[in-house]
From TrEMBL:
Keyword DNA-binding attributed: yes
Annotated InterPro entries: Cro/C1-type_HTH, Lambda_DNA-bd_dom_sf
Organism: Hespellia stercorisuis DSM 15480
Gene3D superfamilies from the UniProt entry: lambda repressor-like DNA-binding domains
Record's keyword terms, sorted: DNA-binding
PROSITE patterns: HTH_CROC1
PANTHER family in alphabetical order: DNA-BINDING PROTEIN, DNA-BINDING PROTEIN-RELATED
Molecular function terms from GO: DNA binding
Source organism, top-level taxon: Bacteria
Protein name: DNA-binding transcriptional regulator, XRE family
Residue ranges annotated for the HTH cro/C1-type domain, each copy included: 35-59
């Protein structure tokens, strides 16, 4: 399972709001996907890492899916 919990922590630590991400090119649909732990593209992950000056580990984590 994809979890974007680290993203919200990284954003808080760096003082970056969702509004700032949207103003920097992350669209509303993508923000909704992030809030709901849905898939995003590698390009979006790259953009988030660039905007936040971080690594993918600061944005996303993978947890085992208990249903499988």
């Amino acid at each position: 399972m994809i979890d974007y919990g680290p993203l919200w922590i990284t954003m808080e630590k760096k003082g970056v709001s969702q509004y700032k991400l949207m103003k920097s090119g992350i669209d509303y649909r993508t923000m909704d996907q992030l809030r709901n732990n849905k898939n995003i593209t590698a390009k979006t992950l790259e953009k988030l890492c660039t905007l936040l000056e971080c690594t993918p580990n600061d944005v996303i984590t993978f947890k085992p899916d208990k249903d499988k």
